[in-house]
Amino acid sequence: MKRRLYLAAGFTSVALGTLGTVLPLLPTVPFMILAAFCFARSSPALEARLMNHPHFGHHLVAWREKGVVSRRAKWSAATAFAISIAISLATLPLPWSLIPLGVAVVSLTWIWRRPEA
Asked: What is the pTM assigned to this prediction?
């Protein structure tokens, strides 16, 4: 049962990460990292396939071995958060519009403190 849940979560993460390649505000690499985590606990073959992927593989290996986040990924995250904050400030009433700002501050603080390649 546990293996099936991890497998389902892995496939869901891959699907969301794949959507993130075309949707500007949906992150890709964090979902692929989550998918690798789930596949490591459910399907070593799928984990290996993801880790050897030509586009995502090097990000996943860097994260797993050293907790590295590239500078480009950091700037992409900051840009996505800025767009999200601008949209929320324009469309949501106070105090609800401040929630994305709080999430961005916490998340970006953590992201920017990660080592770079």
From this structure: 0.73
